[in-house]
Amino acid sequence: MMEVKLDNLLEVGVVIGTHGLRGDLRIHPLPTGDLALPGAREVYLKDSKGLLTRYEAVRSSPHKQNILLRLAGLDNLAAIEPLLGSSVWMAKADLPDLDDDQFYWSDLEGLEVIDQQEGVLGRVVGMFATPAHEILEVDGPAGEILIPAVEPFLVRLDREKGQLHVNLPAGLVPEADGTS
Q: What is the rounded average pLDDT for all residues in the chain?
């Protein structure tokens, strides 16, 4: 079996619980994981010791704010309980294609962020989800800037130039000297 490197995988969720008696895992999707998990055919689970194990996904479906995932050969609670807390990964090559206005977190990481008024703000260094929407973390000369990943703030993604163009309201970007 070919060794899988984390560079070729995207973390898409975390096992937060079980559902029912037939071995369904409740997965809390990470930002953009909700786009990838419903069509998953195989996943990798990484346990607390860093061990990465490949599983065939038998069924995957949205359930409330989470994804229910059933893995081949694991059909009861005793088989899946040791997986609680594991992170869920998918091969980047297996991720479904997205519409032009959708993106995976890995597509944004490291992009230069350019505001229409302020110019270059820095680079995307993180992303996290809130109940309302996802938030981009940008690090630059003015420090950390948190940008809601929603229209009208996100204007255009230029993959060729590695740039994310944004239009932020006045006051969201602190002054580089520390005053706002």
A: 86
Q: Let me know whether 73 and 109 are in one domain.
A: no
Question: What is the per-residue DSSP string for the chain?
Answer: -PPPPGGGEEEEEEEEEEETTTTEEEEEEPTTHHHHGGG-SEEEEE-TT--EEEEEEEEEEEETTEEEEEETT--SHHHHGGGTT-EEEEEGGGSPP--TT---HHHHTTPEEEETTTEEEEEEEEEEE-SS-EEEEEEETTEEEEEESSTTTEEEEETTTTEEEE-PPTTSSPPTTS--
pTM attached to this predicted model: 0.71
Task: Evaluate whether residue 23 is within a structural domain.
Answer: yes
pLDDT in tens, 2-33: 566 777 888 899 999 999 888 899 999 887 78
